[in-house]
From TrEMBL, chain B:
TM region positions: 7-24, 30-55, 76-100, 112-135, 147-169, 219-241
Alphabetical UniProt keywords: Membrane, Transmembrane, Transmembrane helix
Superkingdom field: Bacteria
Taxonomic lineage: Bacteria, Pseudomonadati, Bacteroidota, Flavobacteriia, Flavobacteriales
Protein name: Cu-processing system permease protein
Originating species: Winogradskyella eximia
Length: 411, 248
């Protein structure tokens, strides 16, 4: 009998040592998150009850699961970084983190993951932040269902919502980011998936890639940012079914591509942007099944862009469909629908009988003298556009869509 | 005479509206096409109609002048009669097909009302200008010639000169110049007003602060309407002034 009791106790102790649960609340024996972490061992669970915890510089150096019940508030009192994760297999769930310190020498974040694997950061709400979720030199993590609300006004003294630096294979899904510098920022980060996020009202970019390859972003919404998405110096990025909307301003665009090679841009919607896509030095990109509607410029090509193909896109009621700043063209436009197309289809095969020229003389003039934009849609401009259409001099004469569609494409 | 021609005018706009909607099946595209019509055709019709009406009713006018009626009320009455009946034809002729098409449930209703308002302004302005030309020229052929020339100048040539100036002086800051240039021509002004609604995305792409203030806020809308009103009032005042002094 005694031995059985001992056996049970032994099992009980063993159980505790394997997965202990520590509760933290304002009146509990353990009243701070820091204390709980010091007492815990690997693979423990810490449950944080509702309340306010004034803590910062919390280091998580064990494989812990931290779960907040009813969104406990972790208030950093603007004193610096709040949570730093330095161990593998850490899960942080359901916290309300506010007041991250601002610094001009260090990037303080609400939650930072450093040199870790298999982390999960989910259901967090971050407010009053400098950087939100900062993932550096980590891999195989998940960032789900977080809400990041910043108060950024200027670029120089604000941080990014979700930032990845030298990280690999991170999934970022269903997050909502607003009022920060860059909603989501990837630098030297490969094989990441960014899906179903909403990034809006940010000072700079909704999503920003730098030197990151083989990433996918899809089904995201980028609305009313300084500029929607900037993809720079990256290779093989896949961009599917995103919505770029109302990115208005003098240097604003739905998407900026700079030094991008071998990307795929499929099924996206560009609506009411000053410039839908601004392309510079980007090669071998496939544009397919995109909708460009009511943009100032649907696509602005700034030069050094070769072997791009634009097929089966809809260009609807843009002030300018395509703008080129040179008369050399190496890109293919085929089978698109252009709402400005004025040709006819006598053989009724759904394809216009005369090719469409998407680049107008006026867009060339506006490139040279921007003030002339005020003459947009004037009768005189229509006349000179027509004469340029008949015999191209200033615009690339081989830039033609030979198979313009008669009806708007659906897919 | 007046009523018959305004029926023709009305029928023309009715047909135009129906055909546009029938061919396009898309309200926002139809609004763009209509804009082209309004800024080109409305001034032309207003000009021709005004001149024609004045010359046709000249003898009757002289008869009226023998009666104890104030000169200004005779000429203003004639002007308003032409201008308002043209405006009514425009508003009803374009309005009816669009209303039947489901304008009130559409988001394009503001764009469309703006089109009609600018169209009405243009009718008022160009009829007044035509009356001015007719009052100053006894010779009908000359009068017609000047009227057509005026339309051609404001609708096409002005923009050409404007464009040349902008390109010629491209090294200088031009945003103020281009805005003032627009203000001085009622057709350009109406076009800009409509552009503020249709192509705002493109217009916001330009960096100039004056542009931004003009296009980004309701300031532009207000200034444009004030300018259009001035454009109506000035020629009308000249009609009153000229008609008082003229010998018949």
């Amino acid at each position: 009998m005694k031995s059985i009791t001992v056996f049970f106790i032994a099992i009980f102790i063993a159980n505790i040592s394997i997965a202990q649960t520590i509760e933290v609340c304002n009146t509990c024996p353990v009243s701070t998150l820091k204390e709980a972490i010091t007492q815990s061992k690997d693979f423990d669970t810490i449950i944080v009850k509702k309340g306010t915890y004034k803590e910062h510089s919390i280091f998580i150096d064990k494989s812990l699961t931290i779960i907040g019940k009813n969104y406990p508030v972790i208030d950093g009192e603007k004193k610096g970084e709040i949570i730093t994760i330095k161990a593998d297999n850490v899960t942080v769930d359901g916290l309300f983190i506010i007041n991250v310190g601002t610094s001009y020498t260090e990037d303080y974040a609400a939650i930072r993951v450093r040199n870790s694997k298999n982390f999960v950061i989910q259901n967090l709400v971050l407010e009053n932040l400098f950087f939100g979720i900062y993932i550096e030199k980590s891999r195989d993590g998940k960032v789900y269902h977080n809400k990041i609300i910043g108060d950024a006004v200027e670029e120089y003294n604000s941080g990014n919502g979700i930032q990845l630096w030298y990280s690999k294979n991170v999934e970022i899904e269903h997050n909502y980011v607003e009022h920060v510098r860059d909603g989501i920022y990837l630098e030297f980060s490969d094989d990441c998936l960014i899906k179903n996020n909403i990034s809006t009202l940010n000072v700079r970019y909704g999503l920003h890639f730098m030197f990151s390859n083989d990433d996918i972003y899809q089904d995201n919404t980028f609305e009313n940012n300084g500029a929607g998405v900037a993809v720079m110096f990256s290779k093989r990025i896949k961009m599917y079914n995103n919505l770029f909307k109302e990115n208005w301003g003098t240097a604003s665009y739905g998407m900026l591509l700079k030094e991008i090679n071998d990307a795929e841009i499929i099924g996206n919607i560009f609506e009411d942007n000053t410039i839908g896509i601004n392309i510079e030095g980007s090669n071998r990109i496939t544009y397919k099944h995109n909708n460009f509607s009511n943009n100032g410029w649907a696509i602005k090509v700034k030069g050094a862009c070769y072997a791009n193909t634009f097929t089966e896109n809809n260009f609807l009621y843009n002030s300018f469909d395509i703008a080129y700043n040179s008369n050399v063209n190496d890109n293919v436009f085929d089978k698109n629908y252009w709402s400005n197309y004025t040709g006819y289809d006598l053989d009724k095969n759904g394809i216009g009988d005369i090719p469409y020229r998407p680049v107008k003389l006026f867009s060339y003039i506006v490139n040279r003298t921007p003030e002339t934009i005020i003459l947009l849609r004037s009768m005189f401009i229509d006349i000179i556009d027509f004469s340029e259409k008949v015999s191209p001099v200033f615009t690339p004469d081989d830039l033609l869509d030979n198979n313009p569609q008669i009806k708007k494409l659906t897919w | 005479m007046r009523s018959r021609w305004s029926y023709v005018y009305f029928a023309f706009y009715l047909l135009l509206g129906v055909v546009l909607l029938f061919l396009n099946n898309d309200l926002s595209k139809a609004v763009i096409t209509l804009m082209n019509v309004i800024i080109v055709l409305v001034p032309l019709i207003g000009t021709i109609f005004g001149v024609m009406y004045y010359y046709n009713s000249q003898e009757f006018t002289e008869l009226l002048l023998a009666q104890p009626i104030k000169r200004s009320s005779i000429f203003l009455g004639q002007y308003l009669g032409v201008a308002l009946s043209l405006s009514m034809s425009l508003i009803l002729g374009l309005g009816i097909p669009f209303v039947f098409y489901g304008l009130f449930e559409s988001s394009a209703i503001w764009d469309f009302s703006l089109l009609l308002i600018t169209g009405t302004f243009l009718t008022l302005i160009f009829t007044a200008l035509a009356f001015n030309i007719a009052l100053s020229n006894e010779n009908k052929i000359k009068g017609f010639g000047y009227a057509i020339l005026l339309w051609l100048f404001l609708a096409v040539i002005y923009d050409g000169l404007f464009l040349m100036t902008l390109i010629l002086f491209e090294d200088y800051p031009l945003d103020k110049v281009s805005l003032i240039g627009t203000m001085l021509n009622p057709i350009d002004l109406s076009r800009t007003l409509i552009l503020l609604k249709l192509d705002i995305s493109a217009l916001l792409g330009y960096t100039g602060a004056v542009f931004k203030q003009f296009f980004g806020t309701s300031f532009g809308l207000i200034v444009s309407f004030v300018m259009l009103t001035i454009w109506v009032v000035m020629p009308v005042l000249r009609i009153v002034f000229k008609s008082k002094k003229k010998d018949f």
